[in-house]
Amino acid sequence: xxxxxxxxxxxxxxxxxxxxxxxxxxxxxxxxxxxxxxxxxxxxxxxxxxxxxxxxxxxx
Length: 60
Prior knowledge:
The chain is an all-alpha fold. The protein contains two helices and no strands.
């Protein structure tokens, strides 16, 4: 990340580029170990599968 995009013109540029890369890495890259989907999508699917279901016959 750092070497290919040099020269950097200050710490702010490096910090911004790092934040952009982390955002891409966590939310958009396709991950082969989880079925070629982005990690964020896998996490969303996982939470959706583990939501508690309402108990039948109980009125709230």
